[in-house]
Amino acid sequence: MAPQHKLVSFTLNGKPTQKMIDVRASLSDMLRNDYSMHSVKEGCEVGECGACTVLIDGETFNSCIYLAVWVEGKDVVTTEGLTGEDGTLSDIQQSFVDEFAVQCGYCTPGFIISAEALLRENKRYTRDELRKMMAGNLCRCTGYENIINAVEKTMEERLEAKAKG
Amino acid sequence: MSIGKSQIRVDAPDKVTGRARYTDDLCDKNALVARILHSTIAHGEVKSIDTSEAEKVPGVVKILTCFDVPHFKFGTAGHPWHLDPGHRDVEDRLLLTSRIRFYGDDVAAVIAENDVAAAQAVRAIKVEYEEFPFVLDPQEAMKDGAPQLHEDFPNNILGHTTIYRGDFDEAIKEDGLIKVEGWYESPTVQHCHIEPPISYAYMEAGKVVVVASTQIPHIVRRITAQALGLPWGSVRLVKPYIGGGFGNKQDALYEPLNAWLTTQVGGRMVKLEIPREDTFFATRVRHAIRFHITSYVRPDGSFAAREFEAFSDQGAYASHGHGIAAKGMGAFPQLYPCDNLKCDAYTVFTNKPVAGAMRGYGIPQAMFAGEAHIEDVAKALGKDPLDYRKQFLMPVGYADSFSRNVNYFDSFRQCIDKGMEQFGFREKQKEYAAQTGDIRRGVGLAVFWYNTGVWPISLESSACRIVMNQDGTVQLQMGETEIGQGADTAFAQMTAATLGIPFEHVHVISAQDTDITPFGTGAYASRQTYMGGFAVRQTAEQMKAKILKHAERMTRMPVSNLDIRDGNIVRTTDNAVQMSLGELATNVLYSMEYSEHIAAESTYQINSNAYSFGCSFAEVEVDIPMCKVKLLRLTNVHDCGTLINPALAEAQVHGGMSMAIGYGLSEKCLFDEKTGRQLNDNLLDYKLCTPVDHPDLTALFVENHEPTSAYGTKALGEPPTCSGAPAIRNAILHATGVAINEAPITPHVLFEEFSQAGLLEKTAKSVPAMAGADR
Predict the structure, then answer these.
(1) Under CATH, domain A5-81 is a member of which superfamily?
(2) Which of B9, B16, B196 is opposite residue A43, by nearest beta carbon?
(3) Chain A residues within an 8 Å CB radius of B8
(4) Tell me: the pLDDT tens digits for B396-454?
(5) Distance from CA of B196 to the nearest CA of A (A)
(6) Domains in chain B and their CATH numbers?
(7) Chain B residue whose CA is closest to A128
(8) What share of chain A is helix, strand, coil (3-state, %, to 5)?
(9) Which residues fall within 8 angstroms of residue B696, CB to CB, at 6 or more apart?
C-alpha cells in the first residue's frame, strides 16, 4: 500500500501550522517526526503508559493512539508549549524541578501535561483525587510521591493567586 | 559546602521542557528500521526459513536470519571483563539463533525503510520448526530426563554453590529445639522502565557507532565487539539520557545485533526499537526464586542450626546467571548469624524469558523469603517480631571475611528504632491485637541486607576527568552513568565540595561516548556514588593542586597558605581573596610564558565495599471476603551513610518502595503452561503500580558516616526495593493470622490461603463470583 498523504492544519502550541501528513501516522509520530516535539515520548504506543500525553482542545489524550489527521482544526499543546518564549519554566514545570519529581525524565512531560489539564480547572482536589486524575500516566522511578507533591503545590499556588484576584 | 544539600538536579530543567535528548530524539528520522522475528515455540530447532513473501513487501531492504549470523558466542551480562577466563560470564548467545530455547527467542531480523514495512515483512516470514519438549519450572528442569537447554550444563544447572558451616546434622539433635520450616515463592517480574530498550547504529570513520539506551556503555562496547569479532576500539558506544533501566539495561540487549545489522547494509543507519510487548519476554526479567528454609531454634530464640535452599529460575540463557541466587544466599548467614549452616543455591535453565539483573539483584527475593521466615519463627516462639529481630540480627562489629565489610554502627537497631517510633508501630500493634470481622488491619516490618558495588568478586574501578574553562567553571566527565537516579548531580556536588567552587560552576557532560569519556563500568550494584566518589575526589584534588601551583606563582604566596573557596583563591592566613578562579584560568591559558589548559584525569581502583542496611514498616487493611489488601502506609528507613543530596536520596527511596509494593501485591509475569508463551506482556495486564495503588510513602534515614568511603556515602540505589514486600506480607499475617508465602499476594493467592485457613467459610456461597474479581 502506497502511503497516502493529507494536508493537516491545526494549532500547535499557540501557532497555526499545516503540513502534508501520512494518513496512517499517529499524532505522537507526527509531533515527534514532523515537528521535533521531543517532549512527546513513546513508551508503549498502545495508550497504556501516558508518556505521549498532549492537550487537544484542552483535553488530555494519548497521542500514540490518536490519528494525526484527526487534529485538523484543533488546538494541540505539548510540554514545549508550556515553556515561555524566553525559556522561562511554567509554574508546574518549575514545581516538578523544585519538588524533585523528575528522575529519568521519560514520563515527565506526559505527567506535566496531565497535571496542566487538571490545574486549569482551578479546583482544589485531595491527594487521593489527584492520584486518581493522574492515574493515566505511569512512572517507574519516583513512586509518584514527589509528582503528587508538585501538582498539589502548583494547585495551591494557582488557587491562592486566583483568590487574590 | 555542597555535600549534604538538596541541590536541584542538574538535568531537571531540560527534562521538564523536552530539551533532554533520549536515543530516539537523536536518531535521524530517515534511518532504516529493524524488527525482530521471535520464535513461536518454546523449545526446538529452526529447520528452514522462507523469506520469499517477506522480500516482496515494498520497502524491505534486507532480511537476515539465524543462518546468516557470525558464530562468535558472547555473554550479555553487564559485568566488568575478567582477566581470568574462569571468572567470565557464560558465553552462550548468538546474534540470532536456530536453536530455540524459549517462546520469543530471536530467529530473524528485517531491515526496512519504515516500521510498517518491517512489521509486515516479519509477519510474512515462514519458519519451519522441529519442536522439543520444554520445561518451565526450575525444580522440574533439574530432574533426570527433563528437556535439556544447553549441552554444557547437565540437568540444566547453570550454577550450584553452597555455604556449609559447623556441623548441621549434629546440631539439630540438640534437645528441645523447635523446627520452623517453610517454602517461599517469589515471582518473575519485569523492570518496566518507561523508555523501551532502543538503539541505532551506523558506520563512520571505519567504526561501528551504536547510540543506545544503556546503563553500561563501556561494557556494551566490549560485548558488541566480541559478538561481531571486531577489535574493541572499532566499536563506539554513545549513551544519551535514558528513560530508566533498573538492571534490564545492565545487559547487552540488542546493541550487538543492531551493530551487526548496520554492517550488513553498508553502514547505513539502522534503528532498532524494542516494542513494549517484546520488552517483557525478549529482554530480561527478575529471577523467580523458590526458597526452602528450615530453622532449628532454641526456646530462648537463638538458632541451633539453619538450612537454606534456593532454586532460581534462569530462563533460557545465562545472562547474569548464578550471581543473583548466590548473592541472595550470601545474605542469609550474615543477617541472622548461626554457627551451623547448610545452604545450597541452584540456578537452573528453563524454557522461559531470560533472567538478568534487576534492582536488588537477588536480595528482594531473599528478603521476601528470609523475613517471612523470621516472622514465622518469632510467631512459633511466641515472641514479638520486632524485639526478636533486634535480639538476633547481625551484631554491631560483625565482620564478613569475604567482602571485608564491617558493621561499624548498629545500623539495624538504629533504623528499626527510628522507624518504629515515627511509624507508631507499637501503638498500632496494640490497636490491632484482637480483631474480628471481615475488615482487619495489621502492621508488619522487615529488614534488608545490602552491600555496595561488586568488589571483591569483580573489578571496581572508576575514572574521572575535570577540565577548566577560562571563567573558572569546570566540565566534569565520568565513566559512570546517569540513568535517572541523580548521579550527575551527586558527582557535581562532590566536585564542587573538593575543588572549592560553587555547585553551579560544575557542568556535567551527561552523555557518554566511549571514544571520549573516561572509563567506568556504569550504573549497577548501587555502586556509583561510592565507587565514583573516589575517582571524583582524587581527580578534584589533583586539579586543585595544579590550580594552587599557578596561584602560588601569581600571588607569590606559598601553596600552604592558599586554598580555593567558593570559586576564589583565598589566602588562608587572613581569608583575603586573591583572585577569582576565572581570573586565574584566563591568565594561565593565555599566558605568553606558562600557558596551560588546566585539566586533570585519573583512575581510582577501589578495593573495598560497604554494608548498607535498613528496614520497612507496613500497615495494611485486609478485606477478607473480597481477598483484597489495601496498603495504608509504608515507611522505609535507610542507613546509606552520609547523604550527598537528601532530597534525591528520598526520591530514590520512594521509587524503590513503589517497586517493592508491586512485588508484594500485584506484579507477576504469567506463562501459558501449554506453550510457554507469556500471557501478560503489556502494561495493562502486567500490574505495575499506578498512582492510585500506593499510599503516601515515607523515607527516613539514619546517617552514619561510612568510614571506608570518599564522601561517607554507600549504596542506596537498590536497597529501597528490598524489604517492602515482606513487610507487607508480615502485616497481612498480623491482620489475619494467615502466613502467605507467595508473592505477589494477589486476591487469587489470598482466596486459596483464606479458604484453607477457614476464613471464608461463612461467605462460601459467593466464592465463584469472587474468584474472578481480581482488579
Answers:
(1) Beta-grasp domain (3.10.20.30)
(2) B196
(3) 97-98
(4) 999 999 999 999 999 999 999 999 999 999 999 999 998 999 999 999 999 999 999 99
(5) 6
(6) 13-23+31-132+197-274 (3.90.1170.50), 288-454+609-771 (3.30.365.10), 461-605 (3.30.365.10)
(7) B692
(8) 40, 20, 40
(9) A127, A145, B633
